[in-house]
Design brief:
The chain contains twelve helices and six strands. The chain has 308 residues and is an alpha/beta fold. It folds into two domains: 22-100, lambda repressor-like DNA-binding domains (434 Repressor (Amino-terminal Domain)); 108-305, Endonuclease, Chain A (2-Layer Sandwich), CATH 3.30.870. The longest helix is centred in the middle third of the chain and has 19 residues, at 159-177. The termini are far apart.
Amino acid sequence: MLDRQSLQVVPDSERTSDSPAGAGLVLGAYLRQLRKSQGLRLSDVVNAGIVGSVPTLSRIERAATPLREETVLALARHYGVTDVAKLDVLCTLTRHSRNDDWWSGFRDVVPGWMERLISVEASARTIRTYELQYIPGLLQTSAYTRALMQAHHKTGMDAAERERSIERRVEVRANRRKLLAGSSAPQYYAVLDQSILVRRVGGKAVMREQLRELYNMEENREHVHLRVLPFDRGADALAPASSITYLTFPSGQTEDVLYLEVPDGGTYVTQPGDIKRYMLALSSLWGLAASRAETMEILDQRIGELRD
């Protein structure tokens, strides 16, 4: 396994030009895992003539430098990887790490911590989340997102500039949602506190549309699994954070990632003890939540209450 470390809160001012994107992060972590599994130090690899210097290899493993296929393949083979399929995957990841992803055009409204989340989402095999306050971003309708942005967007700009900023944020979230519509979508599990359904973000019409969308996704998408945590079970399900997202990746690519939302930012945690604690919390919340049939009934009832 990889050595685990905590990725601290990333300020809004940080950009992914200063931090690795998802494919590069996955690839760098995998190469580091391979090296350590062979008991090799950075200097051992340099002395073998695979790369020119320890700082260069360190940057490759942190995805802090553009990755080249020939270098990645040379490292992988030096670490004992001979399987053609695995080498092809490494080449694909290398090419992907050099591509400008869709969110690169929205850096004026996407902070660095959010770019990291979007990039790791794109590589995830499973995503498990718990939300206490709002519909998870990957499930939001554009109208719901817009209402949230209008309520919480920072002031200090003129009306036209503010509206443009809000609409660009809405577009970012709409693009994120495409992840769950693709043919290679991850398995997605979400526990929603019942208070989310009661909170009228954007008014009755917006909430009704949003809850219908949740109902339709649970009913029609096999890879989307939604559960409501009813009010009467909340006392037994005290989560250690208001929003928890846990991501896993294809076997052997990188360590699991656990993301917590904090005011004006996000924290990425990979310490084994912390991951275990939050995994237990997510498992407990899922077990206490309503069943699929009960969840559908709760959603349907709430949709009915929001009719004009």
